[in-house]
C-alpha cells in the first residue's frame, strides 16, 4: 500500500505488523476503538540513523516537514506528587511547557521529563515515543493543529519505524484532550 504522505517504500496497516511494535503500542492497536478504524493506522519502516528532522525530511519527503508531530513527555509536581503527561505538537512548533502545559497539569513548574523517566514509564524507545500505548491514566494533550491534519507522522514506540494516522484519530487515544495553542 502507498503511504498518504512521504516517500516510503511501503505502508502497512498497523494491525498487520504488531510484531514490529513495542508491546504497549501493539496492545493499544489491538484494543483500538472508535470512528477511525485500526487499519487506517499505518506503519512505515524508517532508518533510525536518519531520524534527525532535516535528514529525515530529505530522505522520506519534503511534505513531512508540515505533517509530522512529536510526542513529548512532560512532568510537574504538586504537593510532592509527580504529574506526567504526553503532549502531541506539530514538529514545526515548540511545546508551550510553562504556559499551557503547566496550567493543564496544575503545577507551579512543568518541564520535559528526563529521558530515563520517559522511556522507563512508557516502555518505548527514546526518539520513538508515541501517544498510542501510554500508561493508564496519563493525560494526552493533543494540539488542535495536529488533530486537524488529514494525516500525521508520529513515532511508533521504537526509533525504527513511524506511524501515519489521521490527525483526528489521536483524539481516540485514552485520556486524550484537544488543546488549543499547545504548540507555538
What portion of residues is helical? 10-25%
> What is the number of independent domains?
1
Shape: globular
Mean pLDDT: 94
**Count of alpha and pi helical runs:** 5
CATH superfamily: YbaK/aminoacyl-tRNA synthetase-associated domain
CATH class: Alpha Beta
**How are helices and strands ordered from N to C?**
EHEHEEHEHEHEEE
Low-confidence stretches: none
Range of strand content: 15-25%
Write a structural description.
The structure is a single chain. Helices cover 20% and strands 24% of the residues. With 184 residues, it is an alpha+beta fold. The protein has a single domain, classed as YbaK protein (Alpha-Beta Complex), CATH 3.90.960.10. Strands 5-3-4-6-9 form a five-stranded mixed sheet. Strands 1-2-8-7 form a four-stranded antiparallel sheet, with no helix packed on it. Strand 3 and strand 4 form a beta hairpin. The longest helix is centred in the middle third of the chain and has 9 residues, at 97-105. The radius of gyration is 15 Å and the shape is globular. The mean pLDDT is 94.
Key descriptive features of the protein:
single chain, 184 residues, alpha+beta, YbaK protein, 4-stranded antiparallel beta sheet, 5 helices, 9 strands, 20% helix, 24% strand, globular, YbaK/aa-tRNA-synt-asso_dom_sf, aminoacyl-tRNA deacylase activity, YbaK/aa-tRNA-synth-assoc-dom, YbaK/aminoacyl-tRNA synthetase-associated domain-containing protein
